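Pilot study result, target chain (385 residues):
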Amino acid sequence: MSAYPSSQEPCRLSPSAVVTTQSQLATLLDALSEQPAIALDTESNSLYAYHERVCLIQCSIPEGDYIVDPLAGLDLTPLAHILGDPRVQKVFHAAEYDVMCLKRDFDFRFVNLFDTMWAARILGWPRVGLGDVLKETFGVRTNKRYQRYNWGQRPLEPQALAYACMDTHYLLSLRHLQFEALVQQGRWEEAREVFDHVAASGPFSHVFDPEDFRRIKGAVDLAARERAVLRELYIWRDQEARRRDRPPFKVLNDRILVALAQARPRTREELGDLSGLKPYHVRRYGSRLLRAIQRGNRARSPQPPPPPPRRSEAEVTRFQALRAWRKEAASERGVDADVIVGNAVLWALAEQNPRTLEDLSTIEGLGPWKRKMYGEVILEVLVEL
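Predicted structure:
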């Protein structure tokens, strides 16, 4: 028997309406404000721009599917009222990133959110990606052709708009099925606590840190002078990507940066001999690459990062005991371990070693429902150590 419920009412896609004017937006917002729930999703251009931005906001209600175009010069401030209205439920699939991007670009806040991905995880569904869920629940196969589409370009292809609508078209029906299952299994309060936590996610932010060059695969294996060169190349690539408004990996990928740091070429001819560096790279970036390499050759070798703080043996012992409890609890429910509680919560418990239910209220990420459900057993695990 499938773990997924099946839809009793087949859905048919209606033509999408693209909102590009303020009057169209006002009409749409009037319609949305009358709904008990609306389905939402976003598309961004992170694969094509350094300064990522929300390029589409898709929304669906029983009457139809709509796409709001934020790049059309719209004032989206009126949308904030609906997103913050507790009477209108906002239904997303895997909401966290959408929420963070919408807060970053438009300073929205979210109240009364429903996340169908988290609902699927709480219900123990074996696969929770939207494509898998739509296939299993509604018999719908999604077209993956547009997963890497440039949503920042205009005009958008009609097929791309149809693909974007698929992300919200079935969410209200899916939400209905999941809500009934959550209530039936006594999981609605648990889900609502998770949804509120997702809604409170902070705005997405990207702050460049020159020391993040250490995260590049292969950086740890470089000699000290090579690491100094890699750091300068990493800084140059970010500056170039920012100037051209391109993702850094579309300027030069990490593998080429490491190869440059190892070879440390001194001339354009030597640059041209480097495997992976194309002739157009040499023409476009040659002089700047050579200057970055020269700076690295003169720079002081980067100091190793400070070691992470060592956890005490007692903290590690508590963490391991809590993890063993979590694994058993997750197995009994048939869910992933982090549906019970995440690692950050386990470490906070291990570090603070609470002794009372009141103490548990200070643990970030351990909300009222989780404290009520798991608080006593958590304290029992800790007191036995």
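One observation from the pilot: The CA atoms of residues 55 and 272 lie 38 Å apart. A full batch analysis is planned for the follow-on phase.
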